[in-house]
Specification:
Blueprint lengths: L1 H17 L5 H21 L9 H12 L2 H4 L14 H14 L5 H21 L3 H10 L2 H7 L1 H18 L3 H12 L11 H4 L6 H16 L1 H7 L6 H8 L5 H23 L7 H16 L10 H16 L15 H25 L28
Length: 385
Amino acid sequence: MALILVYFALFLLISFASKVIINPGSRKLFQMLSCFILLFLFFGFRDITVLNDTPHYYGSYYTLSRYNGYVDSSIFTYRIELKFEWGYQVLVHFLMKYVSKSPYTIILFSSFVFSLGNVLFFAKYTKDIALSTFLFLVTGVLFDQFCLIRQTFALMLFYIAYGYLQKDKNTKYCLIILCAALFHTSALILLVLPLLKKLDIRIRNVIFLLIVALVVAILIMQIFSMLGMLGNFYVKTVLKRSSPPIAAILDGSLMFLLIGTCIFLHKKMGLKNINATNFWCCILGVAICVMTPFFLQFFRFNIYIWPIIYTVFMKYANSDFVFEEEGDYHPNRPLRRIIMMSTFFLLIVRIVIVLAFKNEWYHVIPYSFYDFSDRFHYYNMYYDQ
């Protein structure tokens, strides 16, 4: 636990240390390099016991690499028995055939891509890269990302597409999202965002969307029954549950709190305009949170939305961020500092409680580095399907 908290604190140290660098470009580069190195070292060289899905991806890579017939075949061949999307199959096959058969290759490569992708995303959309990285760590967002490897490849493509969505370049946006769906089909939910952006930002439209989400959630089992999906593993898991999903309810409460804080600060600062892309991303996230208690696997959709919500929150709560396109405003820097420090304190307490009492959510503790000298690594731990 202490090691993890010290690791978190390093990003705060980078944020404070960078303030002595006068040149904005040099300060930004310092934060980018420092955060990338820390992220890649921590996640890229983790043992396969760290993060729930790490051993599964390691194990599948190891198993496939043992069959020369598979390795030597065309990398573009789709194999339905693997239960992986075609894009991910092509990527793994390419790495196996042309890079290395070592099963740790997928952990190193994915960690490099995800570390770089997040740092570049923070550099483009936030004022303080290190502070944003700290926020993503203490909320568990980065733990989810480096755990859910296939979906996070899709998320990295969404990071790219997000810029086109902001500029209403919907054709390019949709093409990139379709590519993302080749790594994880859950990315298809993101195709609704260009449609949502066509709606006026009005309370009645928000209420209508949330009512639709609630109705779908209530009828979800009937919908699965009509589609003949009651035998699906995830559906059967939900049917076996005897208690409400506490994690989903807590996540939904946190999302409501963060978005409510942004709305409060928006009014306090006297901002006149609302960024439609960010607004409808947030509303989609809330709609998903409404549905998740009825079917837990819906939480996967919010893997794409949480980064946007936290990025929006950082803009409002970071007193150094200047709103240039939202009209005249009152900076309210003291209030924003208080809200940021209070939120960070609550999130730190939350992650400490989770790691201490719900370590099975992430399996981060005990943290250890991968032993490259050991030829055998047991990779069937945490396997539940």
